[in-house]
Amino acid sequence: MKNIKTFLILITTFTVLVSCNYNQQKAMNDHRPDLLKRLDGNWHAVGKVIDKAVEYSVNVEPVLNNTFSRIHMRDINNPPQYEAQIFVGVDSATNTVYAHWLDSFGPSYSVPHGTGKIQLTSIEFVIPYPDSPFRDIFKYDKDNDTWTLLIESYSDSTKVWNKFASYEFKRKRN
User: Fold this and answer.
1) Residues 6+ apart with CB under 8 A from 121
2) Tens-digit pLDDT profile for residues 73-119
């Protein structure tokens, strides 16, 4: 009985140590900019799309060997009426943001990719859709640990950016 107890303690200790080492290695290999890492976690997002109130559950996590952040937005309705996965990565050589927006509107709206930059507290990229470019601006509020996402479409006729959608992300507390 004593041998079994000792064995179980050793196995438990080993499992904990391996798990801690894995998490440390994962964090060390995460070369995403700090601002992009601040998006990681679970969020509740409320906002408006073309003046229609919307509410989303949002999960953000590093993917593809920590080279992208995957932002998974899902309408809270059951079944969801809208769902999107946005992959945002930064080329460390040029500091260029690359974004791929995939959503429930289908494949034709998933191209082209967006490009942009990271500022002090914001991540901005423009997706040059054939009908009209869209500009996405994620802005971080460090004091409140919240994010806003503003999506604008460009009007060729007026030469101005017009609000298409806006959201406020608040971190979910367990």
Assistant:
1) 35, 139, 140, 141, 142
2) 999 999 999 999 999 999 989 999 999 999 998 888 787 999 999 99
